[in-house]
Amino acid sequence: MSYLSPEEYELYRLARTLGGVFKAKELLKTMHDKNMSVDSLLAYLKSIEYKVPSPLEGRIEDLERRISILEGKPTTRRTLPPPRAKGEVRERAKIGERLPQAQYTLPILEVLIEMGGKGRMRNVLDRVFDKIEDQLKPKDFEKLPSGTAIRWKNRAAWERQRLKSEGYLEKGSPRGIWEITDKGRGLYEKLQQKMS
Fold first, then answer.
1. At 123, which helix (H) or strand (E)?
2. Contact partners, residue 103, CB within 8 Å, separation at least 6
3. Final residue of a domain: which of 47, 70, 93?
4. Which of the listed residues 19, 52, 70 is the one where a domain comes to its end?
5. Are 160 and 108 within one domain?
6. Nearest alpha-carbon partner for 119 in 189, 170, 185, 182
7. Buried b vs exposed e over 76-104: b needs ≥16 C-beta within 10 Å?
8. 85 found inside a domain
9. What's the CATH number where 170 sits?
10. Residue 131 and residue 50: Cα distance in Å, rounded?
11. In 3D, which of 164, 62, 77 has the Cα closest to residue 112?
12. Is residue 92 part of a domain?
């Protein structure tokens, strides 16, 4: 029996999913520093097709873990990143060690225009990669400290989210589809003129 309110339970699940209270606080601080709303974070997670476990799935997983403990079996948490090798330190990339997020704007808009205005996320990212491959730095090809995604794809997805929130990409597109707006086409033309 749980004495937690639904909100407290969700915070507990978030902390557990992230690997502890420290990680949850770190996420909340980052969101505060970047003036990011929970809705923006959820929209980003949907854009990368991240599946947030339902409360029922969380409870089932917790029950399975408790049964395993009672049976004396080793337990694992699928929500945590893979364990680090002894002595391995995963660090955040420093400024200058990766392609700045703003450098993804023009390639994303250009690819969408080339694709007729919209495309599947995977196809868009493949074509964006072709355009920026020579600009990417070694750190861009590494996995994030969380172990969930490659840095350059993560930064491209965040730039897509920014473009969407500012109206350059369609907000109501189906899941997994990136679609440019007329405002986005205007931004592309402005950026092209600046480069000329």
1. helix 121-132
2. 132, 135
3. 70
4. 70
5. yes
6. 170
7. eeeeebeeeeeeeeeeeeeeeebbeeeeb
8. no
9. 1.10.10.10
10. 26
11. 164
12. no
Residue for token pair 């699940």: 13
Two structure tokens written together for 149: 């995604």
The whole domain housing 54 covers: 6-70
Whether residue 131 lies inside any domain: the answer is yes
Whole-angstrom distance, CA of residue 114 vs CA of residue 141: 25
- Residue with structure tokens 């920026």? 132
Do the domain assignments include residue 117? yes
What whole-number distance in Å separates Cα of residue 93 and Cα of residue 53? 29
- Considering the domain architecture, whether residues 188 and 128 belong to the same structural domain is answered as yes
Number of domains in the chain: 2
As a whole number of angstroms, the distance between CA 21 and CA 25 comes to 6
Cα–Cα distance between 40 and 79 in angstroms, integer? 22
Provide block-wise average pLDDT over 10 residues at a time, the chain (196 residues).
Answer: 62 66 71 74 66 62 72 53 54 73 92 94 92 87 80 91 94 90 94 84
Closest CA to 105 of 168, 175, 147: 168
Tokens of 182: 């007329």
Q: Report phi then psi at 146, rounded to 5.
A: -70, -20
Q: What is the pLDDT of residue 139?
A: 84
Can you give the pTM of this predicted structure?
0.54
The residues with which 143 forms a beta bridge, in sequence order, are: 150
